[in-house]
Amino acid sequence: MHLVYNALFLFVAMKWGDWRRWREYYPTILFFIVGDLLKNLLFHDYWIWTYQETIIAKEILSNHTFISLLIMFVCYPCTTLIFLGHFPEKVWKKLLWIMTWVFLFSIVEFFNLKYLHLIEHHHGWSLGWSILFNFVMFPMLRLHQKQPLIAWGISVIWIIFLLNMFPIPMKYIK
Fold this sequence. Notes:
This protein is mainly alpha-helical. It has helices at residues 2-16, 22-42, 64-83, 91-114, 127-146, 148-165, and strands at residues 49-51, 119-121. It has a two-stranded antiparallel ribbon. It is globular. The chain starts with a helix and ends in a 9-residue tail after the last helix.
């Protein structure tokens, strides 16, 4: 199913992504990927959520790492090209655009968690935390596009906050 989701994101990005300005979005795509790579590194032996394939391509996407890399290198660039490529100018439209993406990512996670079992939460993580994370992530992508140093600074604060909320026992840090 993860292959289907990523193929769908790629199809949608091919149709509606702002490919003409991909170079402008490239640093933000890398910012998006680096954030997830950092989460995977820090929580490598103490996952707060894990992906698994339960429907299609179980042999190809046999573990969290392969699925996570697929998402990072397909879904994140596609999301960025669409999200930033169509980011509106009016304040109320900006808020609506962000809310739309928060809803989209949250509803996909809800179905993947409750019905398709493509994701599992661990160590206190929940759908509520994912929704909060999405409310931080999407404005952060826009902020990174406009003010990358400020976005990095706020991201460090956000990471510290998350590490305090979901502390990793020292025995899992290598």
